[in-house]
Design brief:
CATH superfamily of the largest domain: Winged helix-like DNA-binding domain superfamily/Winged helix DNA-binding domain
CATH class of the largest domain: Mainly Alpha
CATH topology of the largest domain: Arc Repressor Mutant, subunit A
Radius of gyration: 16 Å
Number of strands: 6
């Protein structure tokens, strides 16, 4: 959990495994996956499902959305406010939870395209 809490990034399980092995060389990848699953189920971290590539894990539990660059896969937080009431009204049902991942092309990738 400390690896996720101290990271500024949305890490993959493999990235967490690499960081954990630096401290605990005998740790197994299965242990990482099991712990990530338990932490997600307990609501201590959020799993971000990626269309392309491995899922990422987020320490920020406050409601927020994500921006994902379709070119390089960079992932960043976006804060649109609590949309639960708006989505419930539009859907005509009570929305219990939601996840919004918005895809775009980041500034660095737009600059690369211009070259």
């Amino acid at each position: 959990m400390a690896i996720i809490e101290t990271s500024e990034d949305h890490l993959t399980a493999d990235e967490i495994f690499t960081k954990a092995r630096a401290v605990l060389p005998s740790i197994a990848l299965a242990t990482i996956y099991r712990n990530l699953s338990q932490l997600t189920k307990a609501g201590r971290i959020r799993r971000i499902t990626m269309q392309r590539g491995p899922d990422r894990f987020d320490k920020t539990l406050a409601r927020h959305e994500h921006l994902i660059c379709t070119e390089c896969g960079a992932l960043s937080d976006a804060y649109l406010g609590d949309l639960q009431e708006f989505l419930s009204a539009k859907a005509g049902v009570t929305i219990l939870d939601y996840e919004i991942n918005m895809r775009y092309i980041c500034q660095q990738c737009r600059q690369k395209r211009r070259k």
